[in-house]
Amino acid sequence: MPNHLNIPFKKTYATPIRAKVRDYIQNQTEDHPDAYKPDISQWETLRAACTTNAVRNDSINPFLSYHAQLVFTLTKLPSDIDLEFAYAHAFSPTTSIPITLRSLAFERAAILFNLAALYSQLAASEDRSSQDGLKRASSYYQNAAGTFAFLRTSALPKLSIPPQAEESPSDLTGPFIQSLEWLMMAQAQECAWQRAVADHYKNGLIAKLAAGVASLYSSSLEAIRSASAEASEKLPSTWIAHIETKQWHFRAAAQYRKSMDELEANRYGDELRRLIDAEAEANRGYNLAKRNAVGPAVLQDIKSLLDVLQKHLARAERDNDLIYHNDVPPSSAIIPVQEVIVVQSNVPSGLSDLKSVLGNDHILFGEMLGWGAREAVNIYNDNKRSLVRDRITDVAQELDDEADRTLRSLNLPSALEALERPIGLPPSLLKKAEEVRLEQGPERIAAYLEDVERLARRAMAVLDEAMDVLDSEASEDEAARKEIPITRPPSHEANQQLVQKQERYRKILIEATHSDQTVREKWEEWENVILQLTMDEEELEALVPSSTVSAIGKSQSANNQTQIHARALRGLLESLDDIRHNRNQLVSRAQRRADADDIRPRIMSAAGNFERLVEVNPATFADVSDEELAKYDKFIQGLSEGQKKQEELLEAIKSTNEQFLSSRKEDTSVKEREHALQYLDLAYAKYCEITRNLEEGRKFYNEMANILARFKEACRLWSNTRSQEAQFSSLSLQDTSVVEQEGVDHPPSPSGPLRRQKRAANLPSLTSGEWEADELPPPPSTTSNAKSSKTRR
């Protein structure tokens, strides 16, 4: 039996690469999956070549090639493409349950682990009784150590375990990998020590090499003890004892060789001290090996060393007592053996230089735009939409609403139109009435109200159905607990996060129904007046009283002043119309620019400047995005300038209107006509406000319906998983009962990952926090100001 340890492969299972990659390309990119058929096939072939577990030198290159392709693939695809990879713990029994993660980074880390395991097994398979075999074994061990070092520093930092993961791969943690790295280094150094012994190097040098071996074994032991209990407990029971025995063996060997050096230099007291210490260390290692059933080869090695030490110690004590009479110094007084380490973590060139592995080979998804660049395009488009909406469209709407509110408060332009047109209807009012008639305004509002009410009922029904699913699961859980012992949390604890989400959604819907009621009350208040706007011109004109006072009036001086102020006021109103018209044109230009704006060519050009194997993040393109968004600064500046002009113009309108009102002769008929026109104008404004509220309400409920449907599905999946756990626990207890009755053990032989078996192993049960659902902000209030009309009401 060999006296070195080798690392086993992490067992893996088949995974649906073809289906999941095609789905991702279809749904998340602009490319067609058929364009990447050869890439997907090559991916499957590369992975299959790395799962044969063949321990041959020619098995190294497939690992290096697959790793290089994975690194490049991670520049094109995100780590999570909904493709699950399942790997068992390297030191778990063959029937153990694997850990499954949707992570290309997990696949990469596991491949590197298995490459290091392959190097260690190649080293262990060498014949170390020859110098060539020792040299090859040492080289393989150093490559294994280098691969572990590369895994620890390059791959593990990019392996993030999602919070909802049922279990994390404890054999892919920094301290554990560090311990294996030190172990490979120690065994490589041991090969160098063995070569030095075989070549009869000087005792002093051999002692230093042995001290280096002991130091590396000690480092491995410390790293194992600093690793998590979950990781170290899965090691074979004899491993830690093996490593510790090796540590004591080579401490003793270093002292033994140094004692021979002391003897040659006639330092008999120092020789005796080193032999005493060496014998104590060897004896400690031997007893440890015997107690822990360490492998026979290791036990025999330290037993042989102990026999030699005891023989030399007896000789040295006799010679010193009879001949030399040297004082024996304490252990603290002698110089420790200097450590000389002649090996290193040798990272294979195929890992440090990926291009050397790929050469002229086809690079997977080489023509695809990297995920970082794609995400940068998506982020830019989102930022662009937000900028145009928040800083251009909404700001323009707020300015228009502010102008409308100011004019309504001043009874303009109704006051002017009542004076300028003593009979008939103003053209502006006729235009607004025609718009309501053509849109079949009242019928449209009635249909919208019915739609909103129906959508609200359906949204609440879906939420109730989701809670019915959780209630049903809770009943099943309660019934199962009466039949079998279950260690998982009860339903009211496990589903807490789902219930909390439901409460938030229900609160949002209740607030929305209050907003709906406000809009309905608004419609009931203004329905009759808005219906008047649908009348034909003659009927509508009959509702507006005529004025008997002409524009000339009774007093010539008063008339002149009124005309002057009226003309000034009309001019200011026309200037305001010009500002609004220019603002609308500016918004239209901004929207056309946004519709035609495509940042993809610039992103692709910028991405092409990076090395092909460099992983590019969306943040890399932040400068490009900022430069492109700067194109909209001129529109924002134009709105700002228009806002200043409008504020000045509104102040002038207020001042001139006061002068206009003070100069007018009081006339009841004029006032009545003015009020009637103002009321109809306000009815049109309320019509626009109500339709806008209802359109936003329909949009809100449609979006909410999608969110609630996903939430209901999350509840269903969670409930199904809990039901399967309970069923499996019941079956496990039945199987256990049968096995106890029959007195035989029938271990399972899974052909694939059996993740559900974790519940029977008393592992933590999943909670509802693993099932995410979208959040929606509460609907805004139903006030008629511009800011509230941006979102829901």
UniProtKB/TrEMBL annotation:
What InterPro entries has UniProt attached to this entry? ALIX_V_dom, BRO1_dom, BRO1_sf
The BRO1 domain, residue ranges: 3-403
What residue spans carry the region label Disordered? Answer: 737-793
Bias kind Polar residues: ranges = 782-793
Checking Pfam families in the record gives:
ALIX_LYPXL_bnd, BRO1
- CDD domains, per the entry: BRO1_ScRim20-like (cd09241)
Name the family.
Belongs to the palA/RIM20 family.
Q: What's the name of the protein?
A: BRO1 domain-containing protein
